[in-house]
Structure formats: C-alpha cells, structure tokens
Amino acid sequence: MKILLIGAGGTIGTVVHKTLAGRGHDVLSVGRTSGDLRFDFTDPEQVAALYAAAGPVDAVVGAAGGVPFKPLDQLTADDFRTGFHNKVLSQVELVRQGVRHVAERGSFTLITGVLAREPIVTGTVASLVNGAIESFVMAAAVEIAPQRVNAVSPSVVTEDLPKYDRFFPGMPSHDLAAVARAYVRSVEGAQTGQVLVP
Fold it and tell me: pLDDT for 146-174, tens place per residue?
C-alpha cells in the first residue's frame, strides 16, 4: 500500500513508519520540517497541497497533534482553540479532503489518547480534543464507507515513563511496539469507526 504518514518524525510516528515500511508498505513521511513531504497539516490550504503532491494513496495515517497542558484555572480560551485546531480540526481536514484522494477501500487512521476516558490534572484540553476525535471517527465511518476510518488511542508510552510517569500516576503504559501494532490493525484490517487501544 502507498501510505501517507503525518507526524512521521515524532516518537510514535518514527516507530509506526518503521513498522509499516517493514511490512512492505510504501510510506511517504510528512512533517513541517522533516520528511519526504514538508507541509503544515494544521493549515487546510497546505493539506490540499499535500494531497496534490502525494497523488493517490491507499491510506492516511496521523501521528501528530499537540495540545497545551495546564491546570483548568490557568487555561485561556486561546489554549482551547489551539488544542482543538492542532489536534481535532487538522485531523478532520485530513479526512474531509482526503476522501477524494484515498482509494475506494482505503483508510484513515487518526490519533487520540487515553485522556478521552481517563482524565488527569492539567489534561482538560487533551481530554476534550481526544473525545471529539473519537466521536468524529464513529460519525465519519458511517458516511465514508467503503473507505474506513479508525483512531488509535495510546496511553503514555512506556519508553517515555521516566519523563511523564508523574503526570499519569498509576495508569498503565503502552510500549511503542504495541502502539505500532494498533496502527497496523487499522491500516491492514477491516475495522471502521473503532477506537483501537494498544
């Protein structure tokens, strides 16, 4: 398959890239400052240019989308707008524009996260946007069939526990290999409208 991978240079994206390429897929990496194609996927005009540059693809995979982490009483309206724009609207745009560029039975895989179901202190924006992505996936799956759309929802990754464990007290972690396998399930499997937990 020809796969467009957004956020290929990040912690999760790097492992997903290696895993999918290792399974024989032709993976085009996309990032703002690195990758085979350089585009800002938070800008709808650049998403259009990205699809024009990539040509027809079999799958689009997202592994990017930053959000601010602050206590609720310190969050501003701009923080919420930024998080929603960077992680929700950008991934929605990949699907909205992508349906014209992805194969008839191709797929989209978006990224969400455990905070949609297990909130933490300072994670209000992340919980909000992850929940929105998961709802979008369920709704979009009904409309774009036979194309498919799923989300991968990892917890904190095991490899990052030394840095982030104090923010996720007592929560299970997912190793990067398990997260990559969830992406493989979405890309190569038959599921749609699902939130895949590694």
Answer: 999 999 999 888 888 788 778 888 888 88
CA distances from 64 to 12, 15, 52, 142, 146 (A): 8, 13, 20, 24, 25
| pLDDT above 70 as % of the chain | 100
Per the DSSP assignment, residues forming a β-bridge with 62 are 6
Q: Characterize 65-79 residue by residue with b for buried, 16 or more Cβ atoms within 10 angstroms of its Cβ, and e for exposed.
A: bebbbeeeeebeeeb
From the options 3.40.50.720, 3.20.80.10, 3.30.70.1030, 3.30.70.3300, give the CATH code of 2-196. 3.40.50.720
Q: Does residue 150 contact residue 192 with C-beta atoms inside 8 Å?
A: yes
Domain ranges of the chain: 2-196
84-113 pLDDT, tens digit each: 999 999 999 999 999 999 999 999 999 999
Measured in whole angstroms, how far is the alpha carbon of residue 114 from the centre of its chain?
A: 13
CA dist 106 and 26 (Å) reads 14
C-alpha to C-alpha distance for 171 and 169, rounded to whole angstroms: 6
